[in-house]
Known about the structure:
Elements: H1 2-5, E1 10-13, E2 21-26, E3 29-35, H2 40-46, E4 53-58, E5 64-69, E6 73-75, H3 84-94, H4 97-105, H5 113-126, H6 132-144, E7 154-156, E8 165-168, E9 173-175, E10 182-184, H7 187-197, H8 203-210, H9 216-239, H10 243-257
Antiparallel strand pairs: 1-2, 2-3, 3-5, 4-5, 6-8, 7-10, 8-9
Helix pairs in contact: 3-8, 5-9, 6-9, 6-10, 7-9, 9-10
Amino acid sequence: MEQLLGKEWDITPAGGATGDAYFAEYEGRKLFLKRNSSPFLAVLSAEGIVPKLVWTKRLENGDVFTAQQWLNGRELKPHEMGSEQVASLLSKIHRSKELVIMLKRLGKTPLRPEMMLQTLKGSFARYALASPFIDQAFHWLEQHLSSLQCDEHVVCHCDINHNNWLLAEDGKLYLIDWDGAMIADPAIDIGMLLYSYIPEEKWEEWLELYGLELTDSLRLRMKWYTIAQTLYSLVWQKKKNAKKEMQQSLHFLRKLVDPV
């Protein structure tokens, strides 16, 4: 790491799932470093969606490090996810043509629901995950697959958990951790956000802030993708042996497929 910044910098691991992120500090200057971030980061920085990209450096071993401006701030709290600021930033992301162009240059193709379902079936068979609610969820997804209609594919973050929203001290909001970004139906992001954080009686109000009408088609797509993403979470949690998180996901899945 010294070859990146010099011996005078104090560099410490930033934690996280991959272990490839670091904090660096020298004489009051702070940077956030990450190994092998996507080239997509440059466009996100230019659009003001993530903290400013300061530099990108390639090491002799082929690793690429990025340095971003370190901002003092905090994660959003769950009750803040219904704010106009969140709706406005997510709307800006979903309407950005530059983000779509960049992801396509990086080889991303639109994520189709039938592809998601096929991948999920294979994963659940491999990890021997089963429960009545999982079976019910797969049946519901298959039953409604042919009814999904979306003409617009946008860049979706695909993990809009409140922990990934950074509110800086100056009041500016950022959405960070873009490693799972896809070109997909915007209902992927919107559905998880609404089901996870917003009471159903306030969905129309939030979507008005976002700039979308709550139609029957959108309701169906949001539910479909929220169930699918919850199943994806269960696979990831099974791999990590995260039993507590698995129970939480199963409880969430039960509410989705058996809301009575």
